[in-house]
Specification:
Elements lengths: L3 E3 L18 E2 L17 E7 L7 H26 L5 H8 L2 H9 L9 E15 L3 E14 L2 E16 L2 E13 L6 H14 L4 H22 L1
Parallel strand pairs: 3-4
Antiparallel strand pairs: 1-7, 2-3, 4-5, 5-6, 6-7
Helix pairs in contact: 1-2
């Protein structure tokens, strides 16, 4: 799936601010209506940071923890609906997207395929950067497996959501999305074994052979001297 972009935002993705870090904050496991209730889904992993810039006002500092919580809830609502509870997708999108962004995002077909069942979320994380409690960027990654009408599937999804805070709360007004098949990396053991075989096939250094012979000869002399 090609990356699609709607709108834009001036939020720094590499923002770091001391004292405003909320890294590696994990929520408990959850299971959806198309996931097996007996299977523990991967935990959400959140990193929330404040964008660099001018100092926040007193009201903004007091509001920041509240806005963090709302943005994390927003990420859960959107992507848990997309991958675990399709029947909630429409409501989740209406609640969290502007009308234009919602219609465009829905046309991308992001999420699990039609007729999906037995969904297992293997990874879900969100990197959120807040700009003065009125703008935010959410970089969300999800890896999911399951069964579809055409057979088993594995999907790797990435969305960057551009969010603005309005009177009615936070709304997604722009996005980038990229989704495709998830492929496991090949085991590193094969590469290591190939390197070992390559080393064995290399010719040995002649100098090293000569040095070994010299050491052997000197050892024989010492043995003869000890026998006298």
């Amino acid at each position: 799936m090609a990356i699609l972009v709607v709108g834009g935002l001036v939020a720094a993705a590499m923002a770091i601010s001391a004292g405003d870090d909320d890294s590696n904050n994990a929520s408990g496991p959850s299971s959806g209506t198309i996931g097996d209730s007996e299977i523990r889904q991967a935990k959400w992993r959140f990193t929330v940071k404040r964008a660099p810039g001018k100092k926040l006002s007193k009201n903004q500092r007091e509001s920041l923890p509240v806005q963090r919580k709302k943005l994390k809830t927003m990420a859960r609502d959107i992507f848990d609906a997309m991958f675990l509870s399709p029947e909630r997708r429409s409501d989740a999108f209406k609640a969290n997207f502007t009308s234009r962004a919602r219609k465009s995002y829905q046309r991308t077909g992001a999420g699990v395929p039609k007729g999906a069942d037995d969904i297992r979320i293997r990874r879900r994380s969100a990197w959120i950067v807040i700009d003065k409690t009125v703008r935010a960027t959410m970089n969300v990654n999800v890896v999911a497996r399951g069964q579809a009408e055409k057979g088993p599937f594995a999907t790797k999804h990435r969305s960057v959501l551009y969010v603005a805070r309005e009177k009615g709360g936070w709304k997604v007004f722009g996005y980038e999305v990229d989704q495709g098949p998830f492929k496991k990396r090949k085991a590193s053991g094969k590469a290591e074994k190939a390197n070992e075989n390559q080393d064995k096939s290399k010719p040995r250094d002649k100098k090293s052979k000569k040095s070994k012979k010299k050491r052997k000869r000197s050892g024989n002399r010492n043995q003869r001297d000890d026998g006298k």
